[in-house]
Write a structure and sequence with these properties.
156 residues, alpha+beta, Alpha-D-Glucose-1,6-Bisphosphate, Chain A, domain 4, 7-stranded antiparallel beta sheet, 4 helices, 44% strand, globular
Length: 156
């Protein structure tokens, strides 16, 4: 199962990429949402493949764990994450394209790969609600892009 979306941000490519790869800032944002996240390996000040995190969160009333690893880091073009949570593996790819000096397109694609029977059932039930889930995914990405654009404008 796959979700994808693209958003245009009114900011230069290098600034957008730098903000999206500010991993310490992202860790703080995630913690504010009630997710317990800790860095397992790597230095976020010098990001590279192999930087990884462990996260704990509640989903549908149950405690869950996820292992997230930065699997590709090609500044300022692409970053990819490989996530394992339960029997589901997720590959997240974020591509950055300069449309002009002051405009950047950010494309995000998430592919869910079930590895167990229960994960297959969960993904199958997601497929039944795919239209609604895609809409929510696009709205969340648009909100993130707008917040990022506003933050970069304030910083000047």
């Amino acid at each position: 199962m796959e979700f994808s979306t693209k958003e245009d941000i009114e900011a230069p490519l290098d600034r957008v990429f730098a903000e999206v790869t500010d991993f310490e800032h992202l860790e703080r944002q995630v913690m504010r949402r009630g997710i317990d996240v800790r860095r397992v390996s790597g230095d976020p000040a010098t990001p590279s493949e192999g930087l990884s995190w462990s996260a704990g969160f509640r989903f549908r009333g149950k405690g869950r764990k996820a292992e997230i690893a930065l699997s590709e880091y090609d500044a300022p073009n692409t970053i990819c994450y490989h996530t394992v949570s339960g029997g589901i593996e997720a590959m997240t790819r974020i591509d950055f394209v300069a449309l002009s000096r002051a405009r950047t397109r950010v494309g995000m694609r998430i592919e869910l790969l079930p590895k167990t029977l229960s994960a297959r059932l969960a993904v199958q039930s997601m497929k039944l609600a795919k239209g609604n889930m895609e809409k929510r995914f696009r709205v969340k990405m648009a909100e993130y892009a707008k917040d990022l654009e506003d933050r970069l404008k304030r910083e000047g």
